[in-house]
Amino acid sequence: MVLSQVSIQEEQGRKIIRKKYNSFNSYKWLLFPVFQFFYPFAALPKSRLERELEFLNFNSNIKKPKVYSFDLYNKELNREYIDGQVDYRDGSKLGKLFSNIHKEGYSLGDSKLDNFICNSEGAYVIDSEQAIKTDKKRYKYWDISLLILSAAYYNYSNKTGFKQFLDGFSKEYLYWQDYQKRAVKGLYSLLFLFMPIHQVYSLKCELSKVKTG
What we know:
Helix 3 (92-103) runs parallel beside helix 5 and helix 4 packs antiparallel against helix 5 (159-172). The chain has one domain (4-208): Transferase(Phosphotransferase), domain 1 (Orthogonal Bundle). The protein starts with a strand and ends in a 5-residue tail after the last helix. The longest helix is centred in the last third of the chain and has 18 residues, at 137-154. Helices cover 39% and strands 18% of the residues. The chain has helices at residues 26-35, 45-57, 92-103, 137-154, 159-172, 176-182, 200-208; strands at 4-11, 14-21, 67-71, 76-80, 106-107, 116-119, 122-125, 132-133. It has a 4-stranded antiparallel β-sheet, with helices on one face. The protein has a two-stranded antiparallel ribbon with strand order 5-8. It has a two-stranded antiparallel ribbon with strand order 6-7. It has 213 residues and is an alpha+beta fold.
């Protein structure tokens, strides 16, 4: 769901990300009730800005950009620019990141791969406007299922790349064994109906794999 307008600007010799929180387009309003079955998504621009502010200002070990300024009236946020790239083949950094996110009691909701940037320091969350503080595990399972589905499409023509992503993520994600037991149950498992058919076998193997060590 692309609901925000993001631009890179330079101020006082540093790059910043300026984000403007937009409203739903008409066709997305039609889909919104469906998404609500899976996760309590926020629709209003102010609500999404407030969620992102709370998450970014939360004091934790989660790697995320610094907030420079914000404007609740105009629904705008200026934050730190994080240099890096989307890493769709090595899931280990994202496994560590999601371990911290879920350990701190947060779920992201919109956990597509392009909402994260990886560099030599690790993986960073760069879009958290649907983040909520919650103790409901099903929202964390949703996070992981959506991330995996996104990785499957990023590696659409590369089954080896998808396998590598799953292997790296599962080794570093602290709650993988719990997720394995529940990945094919509940509403969040319906996401896998949209899995590219040629990637299903790799996912099935990873979910059934017994980790050692």
